[in-house]
Amino acid sequence: METEQKNKRGIAFAILAAALYAINAPFSKILLEFMPPTLMAGFLYVGAGIGMIFIALMRKIKKYEAKELKLTKSELPYTIAMIVLDIAAPICLLFGLNSTTAANASLLNNFEIVATAIIALMVFKEKISTRLWFGIFFVTLSCGILSFEDVSSLRFSYGSLFVLLATICWGFENNCTRKISSKDPLQIVLLKGIFSGIGSLIIGLFIGERIEALWSTVAVLCVGFVAYGLSIYFYVYAQRLLGAARTSAYYAVAPFIAAILSLIIFREIPDVTYFVALVLMIVGAWLSSQDKPLIKKVKNCYSVF
């Protein structure tokens, strides 16, 4: 019973994190018209960090004492890797958004399930069920379809490839975060926000990017607080309860919410390829999010469940 309650809480945190992150792709695509991608990636994470400072202050004012463990030197390698990957991933995503539709980018974000699960298996020895492998297959097939500008000529979309590269970075980052998920989520998000944000800002300024409108900075900080700060905060709690692979699977609802928002905001009419990929992605995400075995044994015979 306790395990069931734990799973339900973990699933709720994962879906909440996904819903908050869903606003990232459509609103970032709009704001890319007013701010270059590397600086935007930096301000998104700085927004997350500032938001966590605000929450920490609210904790102190209300004298809320969270019984959370602090990070130690033993977690330093995972913490550094997490920060570096969090610098690379959003930069790749925003460069991808410059060359592909927000709806496509939103769906391609589901490749994070594949990357997270395979890395969890190969590097961190996390167990992966048969059902999840089937889910990975369908998600990968869907991403493959979306990665071609013209399926008949097999021409790759470079924007889609940047988005996929971002999901691979986040796949590694998810597993690093999983290793420190028993620690205080507020501290984890604060470190992500401040150091990943500053790192991206330094890179952006070094390559010659500049802020064109002050209001856009405020807007990006707000998006960062919601889509990165609050989302990561609840994601860490979900990982603590579910593990990296399963949390990533439930988090897969984010791209669907983002794709719907993108279609409404930009009024882009997708072609048939998009809807084929959408169906495959839904099947893959559903398979990935189920805890039950794909095949169960019933009275000496097997049945598909």
3D structure, described in words:
With 305 residues, the protein is mostly helical. The chain has one domain. The protein is 73% helix and 4% strand. The chain contains 13 helices and four strands. The chain has helices at 2-21, 24-31, 37-61, 76-97, 102-108, 111-122, 130-146, 158-179, 185-206, 214-242, 244-250, 253-266, 272-289, and strands spanning 148-150, 155-156, 295-298, 301-304. The strands form two sheets. The chain has a two-stranded antiparallel sheet. The protein has a two-stranded antiparallel sheet with strand order 3-4. Strand 1 (148-150) and strand 2 (155-156) form a beta hairpin. Helix 4 (76-97) runs antiparallel to helix 8, helix 7 packs antiparallel against helix 13 and helix 9 crosses helix 10 (214-242). The longest helix has 29 residues, at 214-242. The chain is globular and about 55 Å long. It starts with a helix and ends with a strand.
Give a short synopsis of this structure:
The protein has 305 residues and is mainly alpha-helical.
Distance between the termini: 22 Å
Helix content percent band: over 70%
Unreliable parts: 294-305
Treating each run of at least 4 consecutive H or I residues as one helix, how many helices?
13
What is the rounded Rg?
19 Å
- What is the string of SSEs from the N terminus onward? HHHHHHHEEHHHHHHEE
For the secondary structure, the number of strands is: 4
Broad structural category: mainly alpha
Shape: globular
Mean pLDDT: 82
How many distinct folded domains? 1
Strand order of the largest sheet: 1-2
Estimated share of beta-strand residues: under 5%
The main β sheet shows up as:
2 strands, antiparallel
